[in-house]
Amino acid sequence: MANLRNKSKSLDNTGFGSNASAEGTRLINKDGTLNLKKVGLPFLERLSLYHALLRLPRLKFLLLVFAFYTIINIFFAIVYVLVGIEHLKGTDTSTSLAYNFQQAFFFSSQTLTTVGYGHISPSGLLANIVASLESFMGIMSFALVTGLFFARFSRPKAYLAFSESIIIAPYKEAKALMLRFASKKNNNLTDAEAQLTGAFHVMEEGKEVTKYFTLAIEMSKISSLALSWTLVHVIDEQSPFWRLNEDELMRTKFEVIVGVKAFDDHYSNIVQQRTSYTTNDLVFGAKFLPAFHRSPDGSHTVLNLHQLNKMERVVF
Amino acid sequence: MANLRNKSKSLDNTGFGSNASAEGTRLINKDGTLNLKKVGLPFLERLSLYHALLRLPRLKFLLLVFAFYTIINIFFAIVYVLVGIEHLKGTDTSTSLAYNFQQAFFFSSQTLTTVGYGHISPSGLLANIVASLESFMGIMSFALVTGLFFARFSRPKAYLAFSESIIIAPYKEAKALMLRFASKKNNNLTDAEAQLTGAFHVMEEGKEVTKYFTLAIEMSKISSLALSWTLVHVIDEQSPFWRLNEDELMRTKFEVIVGVKAFDDHYSNIVQQRTSYTTNDLVFGAKFLPAFHRSPDGSHTVLNLHQLNKMERVVF
Amino acid sequence: MANLRNKSKSLDNTGFGSNASAEGTRLINKDGTLNLKKVGLPFLERLSLYHALLRLPRLKFLLLVFAFYTIINIFFAIVYVLVGIEHLKGTDTSTSLAYNFQQAFFFSSQTLTTVGYGHISPSGLLANIVASLESFMGIMSFALVTGLFFARFSRPKAYLAFSESIIIAPYKEAKALMLRFASKKNNNLTDAEAQLTGAFHVMEEGKEVTKYFTLAIEMSKISSLALSWTLVHVIDEQSPFWRLNEDELMRTKFEVIVGVKAFDDHYSNIVQQRTSYTTNDLVFGAKFLPAFHRSPDGSHTVLNLHQLNKMERVVF
Amino acid sequence: MANLRNKSKSLDNTGFGSNASAEGTRLINKDGTLNLKKVGLPFLERLSLYHALLRLPRLKFLLLVFAFYTIINIFFAIVYVLVGIEHLKGTDTSTSLAYNFQQAFFFSSQTLTTVGYGHISPSGLLANIVASLESFMGIMSFALVTGLFFARFSRPKAYLAFSESIIIAPYKEAKALMLRFASKKNNNLTDAEAQLTGAFHVMEEGKEVTKYFTLAIEMSKISSLALSWTLVHVIDEQSPFWRLNEDELMRTKFEVIVGVKAFDDHYSNIVQQRTSYTTNDLVFGAKFLPAFHRSPDGSHTVLNLHQLNKMERVVF
Predict the structure, then answer these.
(1) B63 and C CB contact within 8 Å
(2) Nearest CA in chain A to B91
(3) Does B166 reside within a domain?
(4) Which residue from B31, B147, B179, C284 has the least number of CB within 10 angstroms?
(5) ipTM for the predicted complex
(6) What is the pTM of this model?
(7) Are residues B111 and B181 part of one domain?
């Protein structure tokens, strides 16, 4: 618990409350999601299926879609068996329920995907109605699934790699809090903009409350996020970190929330990414070493993403 | 009818006229749509089919699409019967028109969805032309339908839950008008921005007119719409609510229009939502109680959407 | 040719040159497109196929797509005939080239749309390769066509209806230039913003040049484009229309370019529309009459789009 | 290596470092991409497949998709052969592995594209499972491929043509750096905005460093990018080009980076394009000649894109 010495006003407009989270836990997870649970409404009213399906890890998404495909086929296979396998012309008549189900299942999959070989085909009113509904449903549900598949693939993302540590380094006769990031993929980000918010868990009138501060960044906009970008928060009288020594800092429960926005040329859209650092990520007395250099033949610049966290110790 | 005592200038730039709606009715419905009817142009010129289909409730949309599918099949079934059922190879020749129509109907559905089993197939020039047109039309119209289906599913929406009441609470030695809302789903809204407009139906020179005022919000932007957000309009000399007591307020015909905009990370798009409160939604002398608390194990924050309207009475 | 009496500086940042168009012709057409032709690059380098296909009138677009479908089928029909109709199993062997072409044509359409009945099927290496390529090509080209079809349908558009005339009316002890518009469809436009630019063709040192002026609008932003919006350009000393009487105005070759931007809730996108008025559209001494009124039962507002141009004569 | 005489502060917010590139090489390539290589992360983590596939030249993209289609078919053909060609009903039983593979290949392509003629059809549990998986996979992967195909086709692009040279011309009793561009296609750009950044490779304390300067543009926004737009950077005391004569200029290693943003009506989106000029592109003492003129019949304006670089020599 720190006794903050700075005189700047704390913020109210972060969207987090003053008693939002308990001591030592975070508001924002490393991956930028909120460390928050919502209750009080039925699950389905609280769920945006679209968001959930976009957030799902790739493998889980594929498994889900495959499960969905299988279940629909099982459902229709049962319906065809109930209608009577003899109404699927081309199937072997069998007394084995399992074999009939199997034949109905594959006919169903041929209908759902509209591949429709036709060696099996519906005959009679009922079987035809079911098959007609299934192919209709197939097109509609594949519209959702393939749309989602592509939406996931093409979703605007910032693809930023952040330094693991947040450091306190000497800077222009004073100290500064610094962190570093770069775009790690072959995208092209322009007009990038960063924001730092500090959340401090402090004691006030015997109660633990969370106080928020905008951490001013020396240069909060750049034209092109070509190389790595080091955010520099100078620790002056306006900073909540003002006059805290290493010991005090390490005992303070703080969280630094980083938000970055930029324009991506290929998505023609704004992308954004968030992350946060806690006291555990702080390195006191270090400075970042360059993460890029000229190529040996001098023809281009090389950015080494592995070296985003490369630093050397500095004594104040 | 109130005699407004405030001295601030009324607004002209709301887009609503001074005689826009009758006494006691609203400009904006609870769901954010306009309480407005347009006439004077043919229906089709006034209709944006795209907007209409996106706004349609889910069940109605599905029924409409299904009706559309059925009607096209009926249309083509009639054409095939007119061309002659004998040109659909594989059908049973029958003298029953109903049975022929049935066979043609299912062949049509197999063509439209491109499932094309082939146990029935077109033969002869005319039947082939019709089938070729139908499969072409099928692809084109399913492009619209499946596109719409996905557009509905993925449409950027804010998913905000608002408090049912708008309250007047004590605030910093004065009074303030307050309402509260939160994102109710698993989306992630940042850079949220709110706007309050007050519409007052007042008498002026014996005529009822509507006057509009911007209701200043103490903090109209927040970085992250993580928890609930309470909009606070301080009732000072600039406010149209200035010096109105409970009785006067309750007799005033007013409407408070709320507009919220935010950036949604997953849509990578700005989302917005509107709603409005009328005199009937006002609770005089109450304050909101917190809608969120720490989880029992202290590891995260819990937001209870059911408690957005939770308040306690206050005496001024 | 007017001698403009106003003292405000003319604009250079319109993007049009000072000798952009000849006397009496316009820079912007009524539908908002530029009255401009580009040359000096090969046609294909000057053509954005996407823009062209989105701009094409609906009927022409459908005809084009249908022609495209027919031509591809003709092409593949020829290939199948060249490969040998006997390699399409299920076709009647015939010596009539026309009949063979016909059979190949319909097989092609069944392959392209992936309906694939199968009563005709490729046999032999060559026919199989061609059919395999065609179905692949079918999927790829239908991706473009159906994508375009949906893109046209869902393209963000403002759907504004403008008054036919631009009027000069008495306004607050002076005169003002006014025009009016409204959203004519069931869309919901918020945060609308308008811009007026005046282009004057004047004589300068014996040469005709075009001068541009921003025409200040009294209220250039509104929160919600719910009803009709009248843009009011007060003719004061800053206006290029300052002290021109009716005669002088009618002899002046001017063009007023209107640009409107707004946020559409359903597209979740900014939409914009432009149009322009020339001297021929000017009505001197008139004022607009309200285009909306209360519904007879007082429950909502009625906007009559037919009355956007409704005005009455005024004598100055 | 120049000794820059201007007194304005150099920029730090370009996103390029002070030792980003070697002498004589560029930061931004002519096509606007970064002259930069990223290392230090596994290839797949550095690759955004979506960006890569959108950037690929058209022919390469089509070849890639076709290769993908062929490879999947080969894979499934092998699986069908392994399962046993006799489980594909309708194939000729043959002892030739090549012939069996061929038959399996074409069955595979009919399944993948969902054309499913059905003259060959799976029989038996295993073959049916494989075919069912393949048609499922076919729909899913064609969702990606056709989505990409359309995304490439409809991707918001600015389509600007730039003058080949950057010139230094006399301008209002002084000199100015100028370059010119125009939209070369049938798109409609409004609210265009340009930015010029100068990068100078200079010696500082015996080390070559890169210094960046914002090059002020006389008019950096225009309402409509209708005709050609000439960017004018006046060389005054604030300019890094201040008092450099032709010789000095030609010996200076500089790079002028141009960024243009505009709103495209048909994409309803912001588009942007970048390019850069180096010392080699500089023409000292020249002025641009108009690239547009009136059409012979006076009815519209003609913009000749071939004449964007048309200039005449000027002696200072």
Answers:
(1) no
(2) A123
(3) yes
(4) B31
(5) 0.80
(6) 0.84
(7) no
